[in-house]
Design goal:
Helices cover about 35% and strands about 20% of the residues. It is an alpha/beta fold. It has two domains: about 60 residues; about 200 residues, Vaccinia Virus protein VP39 (Rossmann fold, 3-Layer(aba) Sandwich). α1 crosses α2 and α6 packs parallel to α7. It is globular. The N and C termini lie far apart (about 65 Å).
Length: about 270
Amino acid sequence: MSEAGGARAALNAAAARFAFSPTARLDAELLLAHALGITRERLLLTLGDVVPPPGFAALVERRARHEPVAYITGTRAFWTIDLDVAPGVLIPRPDSETLIEAAVEHFAGTPGPRTILDLGTGSGALLLAALDQWPHASGVGIDASAMAIAVAARNAARLAPGRATIASGDWTGTGAAFDLVLCNPPYVAAAAALPHEVADYEPASALFAGADGLDDYRRLAVTLGPQIAPGGVACVEIGADQGQSAPPLFRAEGLTVTVRRDLAGRDRCLVITP
């Protein structure tokens, strides 16, 4: 078998083992690229020269046990940045980019926000994506998890040195108001069935929010208004089935709320203004 054939056969075999994943071939390519220490793009361009290294088999075994690719490789692309991720911290999803899209639309035709707050920052994904979008801005990311704070601080030091502060806290924020508030709170109902790679590996504290998935929205709704500066906006992620149930919690506090859909047409983001 040629070297190119060997690489392709290895990818095909790995993808077959990942049949549980809707992105099985992509998963295999990312793992092989990681094993080789190159980007996936470079892998695809040089596949004819690739010999799968011995370490690739161990990575395949981990993925076959449903371990998320992002935890295996230690990285995840989000918006325009690449984030370090680690077990114990929620893996950023493409759906969450809807919040950045909503913020871009809100500030269209203006210089953009100068101050940004990310409540429940996790890996720092939303904050650091927004800071990359608006290079003149600075921001604060808050999380209750010491592990998340460590990962977010590492990402901030690499991606936005001197512009991002990562701190311990909760939905009450810093006591200050910000031009842009971003938040991806836990919103999964306690009894909801999740894929094994989510339920078995990602932190429950970042996923579940009571019997109806609304517990954290109830807490956030009563504290959010004073954290939004005049002319500012808060973009808050919701589950696809919460477009009717979540907005009234914020409207009851005198806030204006619209619902933005993600690229798949699912309710995904509350766009909230004072």
